[in-house]
Amino acid sequence: MTTVTTVTAAAREPVGELLRQWRERRRISQLELSLAADVSTRHLSFVETGRSSPSRHLLMRLGEHLDLPLRERNRLLLAAGYAPVYPHSPLDGGELAAARDAVRRLLAAHEPYPAVVIDRSWHLVDGNDGIGLLVEAVAAELLEPPVNVLRVTLHPDGMAPHIANLGQWRAHVLGRLRREVAATADPGLAGLLEELRGYPCADPEPEIEVPGPGDVVLPLRLRRDGRELSFFSTVATFGTPLDVTLSELSIEAFYPADAATADALSAR
User: Fold this and answer.
1) What pLDDT is recorded for position 8?
2) Which residue intervals define the domain HTH cro/C1-type in the entry (predicted)?
3) Residue 5, pLDDT score
4) Which of 44, 52, 218, 263 is 20 to 30 A (C-alpha) from 226?
């Protein structure tokens, strides 16, 4: 039922209008896109205005050069009356068994340090035992599925009261989410951004990220049991995803930013 609704909605939206919206969102002129995709500017203009019907191959080329998410490339094809190219497999299905196993191995190998797997909406998909340290003071209702990682981080009943550099970390989180909204045009992410902006924060938020003394990355400084733990994080994605589900997964792994934090985690 969900698939039928999605296909019908996409088919009702003119493909030329979708294409123009994405081109303008990427701040690319018709000339620039036509040169990159090896199509005449005249033909591209006709496609955008509905005077010409694009081929399936042309739409795939344009989607690639516009760096569209796989989900949006499928939507572009559907709007033109073509079948989607990229599969959208369930994460617990057999098609993604190898990828699922690789993610779980990575999570386990990262312990005792925290690591989480998140989807396109910042919902928690999986995590290792190390994340218990991050969420042990979070209100139970925020940990009811689906758990939104950013909501847990910045909510006043979440991690926020325990983050020593909340103003810095909040600015970092909101900036990252704002860039994702610009890249994906996802209305769900835009709504989440507005929600997070409404959360209270007494700490000043810097307009730009400037390192403090000795900082080479922006750390997450978390108060726990009368001491301060400091982390930095890395983000990993699948390098060559051809499935929508895989393309929208990311793994955020936290590492101790100082020796005291490393010792505290090893002792748990």
Assistant:
1) 46
2) 19-73
3) 39
4) 218
Q: Contact, 67 vs 56, CB < 8 A? A: no
Domain termination site, one of 31, 55, 79: 79
pLDDT of residue 210: 61
Closest CA to 165 of 203, 206, 208: 203
The CATH number of the domain where 196 resides is what?
3.30.450.180
Q: Identify the domain boundary among 79, 103, 138.
A: 79
The Cα-based distances of 191 to 99, 149, 194 in angstroms read: 30, 15, 5
Do residues 99 and 246 touch, judged by C-beta distance below 8 A? Answer: yes
What pLDDT is attached to residue 45? 97
Burial of 245 (0-12, 13-18, 19+ CB in 10 A): buried
**Residues of the chain under the 50 pLDDT cut:** 1-11
Joined tokens for residue 39: 């199509």
Q: Which residue has the tokens 């499928």?
A: 74
Residue 105 CB-density burial (10 A; 0-12 exposed, 13-18 middle, 19+ buried): exposed
Report the pLDDT value the prediction gives residue 268, as an integer from 0 to 100: 77
Which domain, by its residues, includes 219? Answer: 94-266
Whether the bond into 112 is cis, omega within 30 of 0: yes
Q: What is the DSSP string of 200-230?
A: ---S---SS----TT-SS--EEEEETTEEEE
Could you say which DSSP state residue 165 is in?
A: T
- pLDDT given at position 35: 96
Spatial neighbors of 76 by CB under 8 A, at least 6 apart, are 15, 18, 19, 22, 59, 62, 63, 68
Q: How many domains does the chain have?
A: 2
